[in-house]
């Protein structure tokens, strides 16, 4: 037999070296995959927070700006009707005890409430006939959702998820120029201060629905300006906005 035609295989040492190199390569690829997946989860969580925050601010702002809106009769023989419940009942709220979340209730003439359900009718008598009035209460529920209870419903419904805290301050006009001179927490129920509320400042603390998005608990600033270290590994972000009560006017405006 010709020695030059003899076949040769891999030695055991060569096989072990090849396996070791392969394991390093696989481990590197797996690490890259895991890092990419974690980065994607974090970015997706942040995107959802931003989307939920904008939606929550839009919902609250839309309702707060309508506070005290009075339906205007289209009759040419009747004039403008002010909000007939009185200025103080167009907006109310409750200050959460011991750091709990606040809530706010706004009222305005509308055929539907915050959940799209028909408001009670007949409603409030105005020139030209009765109108329907929406009374919407917004709060953060026990499941960290922004929820609403409209007067056309008996059970509140969640609107936006991931709302961990909601703090509210009310701009009070003390000199009659329709501009807030100071911001206060919710006055006591029935207080005459409600009559002079002309704006609302809201702070929402939103968190990601999913946990374990970061390597370690983050330190964040809450709505009261306090630095807090999270007890989980969720992402959090503050959203703040100030809304003017466009219908809080002392004198009847002219019709356009």
Could you explain the architecture of this structure?
The protein is of the alpha+beta class and 256 residues long. It has one domain (27-244). It has one helix at residues 12-65; strands at 91-94, 103-109, 124-126, 129-131, 133-140, 145-150, 157-161, 163-172, 182-184, 197-207, 219-221, 227-229, 236-244. The strands form 4 sheets. The chain has a 5-stranded antiparallel beta sheet with strand order 1-2-5-6-7, covered by helices on one side. It has a 4-stranded antiparallel beta sheet with strand order 9-8-10-13, with helices on one face. A hairpin with a 5-residue loop joins strand 11 and strand 12. The chain is elongated, with a radius of gyration of 29 Å. The chain starts with 11 loop residues before the first helix and ends in a 12-residue tail after the last strand.
Please summarize what this structure is.
With 256 residues, the protein is an alpha+beta fold.
């Amino acid at each position: 037999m010709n020695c030059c035609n003899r076949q040769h295989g891999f030695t055991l040492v060569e096989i072990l070296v090849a396996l070791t190199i392969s394991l390093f390569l696989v481990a590197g690829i797996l690490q890259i995959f895991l890092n990419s997946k974690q980065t994607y989860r974090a970015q997706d969580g942040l995107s959802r927070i931003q989307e939920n925050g904008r939606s929550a601010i839009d919902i609250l702002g839309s309702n707060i700006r309508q506070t005290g809106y009075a339906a205007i009769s289209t009759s040419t023989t009747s004039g403008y009707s002010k909000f007939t419940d009185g200025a103080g009942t167009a907006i109310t709220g409750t200050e959460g005890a011991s750091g709990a979340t606040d809530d706010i209730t706004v009222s305005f003439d509308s055929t539907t409430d915050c959940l799209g359900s028909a408001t009670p009718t007949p409603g409030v008598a105005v020139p030209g006939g009765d109108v329907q009035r929406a009374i919407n209460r917004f709060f953060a529920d026990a499941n960290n959702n922004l929820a609403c209870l409209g007067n056309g419903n008996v059970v509140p419904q969640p609107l936006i998820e991931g709302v961990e805290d909601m703090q509210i301050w009310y701009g009070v006009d003390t000199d009659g120029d329709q501009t807030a001179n100071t911001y206060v927490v919710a006055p006591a129920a029935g207080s005459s201060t409600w009559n002079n509320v002309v704006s609302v400042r809201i702070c929402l603390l939103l968190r990601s629905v999913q946990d374990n998005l970061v390597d370690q608990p983050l330190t964040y600033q809450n709505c009261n300006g306090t630095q807090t270290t999270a007890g989980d590994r969720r992402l959090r972000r503050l959203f703040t906005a100030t809304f003017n009560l466009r219908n809080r006017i002392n004198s009847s405006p002219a019709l356009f």
